[in-house]
Amino acid sequence: MISGAPASGKGTQCEMLVEKYGLVHISTGDLLRAEVSSGTEIGIKVKEFMENGILVPDEIVTDIVKSRILKPDVKERGWLLDGYPRTAAQAQSLERLGIRPDICVVLDVPDQILVDRCVGRRLDPVTRKIYHVEYDPPESEEVNARLIIRNDDTVEKVTARLETYKQNAEVIFSAYMDVFNKIDGNQPKEMVFGEIDSLLQQVQLVAKQRQKLI
Ligand code: AP5
């Protein structure tokens, strides 16, 4: 489970984790944006919340997560939850399903850096890869020409999203205290990945040792 403020690097780390571990990446932000861009009934309901950087009602997000996390590929490959839970009610919904993470990573980044990251973020609509105009520019002019900006990536909306995050953060952290790991997200993405990766390797090791004992 990966948590952290807006633009703390959750999506960036998830891309790298999926590549190495083959986990099913369940990003509530991505799932909701897909609903909006397909113009579904859910998309119409959530569009305004998202555009204004306000949390979408718990029931809607929880239904989306439930239907994704209970699919067979998740059972086979394991899950990587990104951006969920974000409220106490969402954490309780996961508990009711008997779902707990092996590790809960929280990426810690100073506020001013978060704002710079949001404002400079660009997305490739074809590959869904995340870039930054300064910190992680695209590799070719062709990719550069098709990059898009998220409409909740303005200074005002990021500030509002950050405030909401701060109001809810403690509740989430306390729900996962036993598996909680705060990581400095203000270092090169490869270094952040290295820290998360070593946590996952420890979990795999413990799981293997347990299997041997059974
Ligand atoms: P969501 O899409 O989840 O947005 P968020 O949590 O605000 O997180 P971001 O996607 O903005 O950032 P990120 O941490 O993934 O950073 P990234 O890797 O892109 O949610 C959007 C909206 O959906 C919410 O506001 C809400 O309305 C709704 N929603 C979603 N989940 C919900 C829920 N559970 N309940 C209710 N509503 C929900 O990186 C950011 C930038 O920084 C990029 O440009 C990247 O290149 C750069 N970067 C990343 N890492 C580094 C690094 N180490 N060094 C330098 N630059 C870096």
UniProtKB/TrEMBL annotation:
Listed GO MF terms: AMP kinase activity; ATP binding
Record keyword Ion transport present: no
Enzymatic reactions: AMP + ATP = 2 ADP
UniProt keyword annotations, A-Z: Kinase, Nucleotide-binding, Transferase
Signal peptide residues on this chain, from the entry's feature table: none
First-level EC class: transferase
Enzyme Commission designation: 2.7.4.3
Recorded family membership: Belongs to the adenylate kinase family.
Descriptive protein name: adenylate kinase
Organism of derivation: Acorus calamus (Sweet flag)
